[in-house]
Amino acid sequence: MTQETKVLIGVGVATVAIITIGAFSFGGATNTQKDESGAEVVSTENQKLLVQKDSHKKVAKKEKVVIVEFGDFQCPACGVAYPIVDQILTEYGENVTFVFRQYPLPMHKNAEIAALAAEAAGNQGKFFEMYDALYVNQADWSESDKPMEYFEKYAKNLKLDVDAFKKSIEDKEFLSKIEKDKSDGNALSVSATPTFFINGEHIVGGLQYDEFKEKIE
User: Fold this and answer.
1) DSSP count for the chain of H helices, then E strands
2) Interval 93-139: pLDDT, tens
3) Which of 69, 193, 55 is nearest to 122 (CA)?
4) Does residue 177 sit in helix, strand or coil?
5) How many CB atoms lie within 10 A of CB 41?
6) What residues have CB less than 8 Å from 184, skipping those under 6 apart?
């Protein structure tokens, strides 16, 4: 299978995932509004829900744009969006702050434990390193009946305290934080993954690189 074929298949899967997941709604009332250009943006009173003090961030030195993603590590569409976001941050990282919020969906059997693994790694200062490992290797663990075997391997590769990492996951130490992310997402009318907010503009589903670039510039 050629790389081009793999990409096309990935995009196809992502499209189906977005359509399917979009049919599920976990949010409450709509808390966004239209701006002068007609774009859907977060209402002023709900801006505080986008980023919390304990949210995981890649902070720009000269912040001009903030991208907040509500994502699910097992979601195929999020997996397709991941390298595009990475490319954007590589090119615009000095000006773009990226925030990742957890939104594991109930139809993904390993989404919650993956979120717990990322948070456990974050507790040892390596959230985004585990975030990378989970998305790069998504095809390996996402449907596995023993996802912890993969997560432990990633933890070892990241030189984490593996025993502490495992205990954190087993105890669901950061489940309340994950639930808070989901609660904020629901209040912001998130109903599918990935959902992005670019300087408050609500965008459901992944964007192509050129579309991200246009929004940023």
Assistant:
1) 9, 7
2) 899 999 999 999 999 999 999 999 999 999 999 999 999 999 999 99
3) 55
4) helix
5) 18
6) 49, 50, 52, 101
